[in-house]
Amino acid sequence: MILLDTHALIWWFEGSPKLSLAAKAAIENAQRLSRVTISSLSCWEIALLNAHGRIHLSTELHNWITAIQKLRRVRFIPVDNHIAVASVELPGQFHKDPADRIIVATAITMNIPVVTVDHKIHAYPHVRTIW
Question: What is the DSSP letter of 72?
């Protein structure tokens, strides 16, 4: 099982060449096994980035999110109370970005790696990453 960071989700779904070969292979393998997960927070982050013009999706936002929800073998993980609190109580030093903290807390809680290019997440020793 793997957890996609927000940018990895966007790049994978949009077919972007920015997605590394290792990340693409990990996602394809996990999808075959019904083990691709996405934090529901990524929907919030995508909506925010889209609203501020920082990303450009191939279709209207709501249709884009709906298309991901319809993908077989992909599951959204809600931000529950445990993950919310865990994101504030991460062990060691980690930066303050709330989206990254929730994604990392989700991965730690579920004991799964995060597919991410984010060097701050890669440098954090308490979570496994793929890129």
Answer: T
Residue 32 contacts by C-beta under 8 Å, 6 or more apart in sequence?
73
Mean pLDDT of 68-79: 94
Per residue in 39-52, pLDDT (tens digit) is 999 999 999 999 99
Question: CA-CA distance, 107 to 34, in Å (whole number)?
Answer: 17
Instruction: Tell me the pLDDT tens digit for each residue of 5-36.
Output: 999 999 999 999 999 999 999 999 999 999 99
∠ CA(59), CA(65), CA(66), 5° rounding?
Answer: 95
Interatomic CA distance for residues 75 and 113, integer angstroms: 15
Residue 39 DSSP class: E
For residue 35, count CB atoms less than 10 angstroms from its CB and return exposed for 0-12, middle for 13-18, buried for 19 or more.
middle
Q: Residue 10's closest CA among 43, 36, 34?
A: 43
* Average pLDDT over the chain, rounded to an integer: 97
List domains and CATH numbers for the chain.
2-130 (3.40.50.1010)
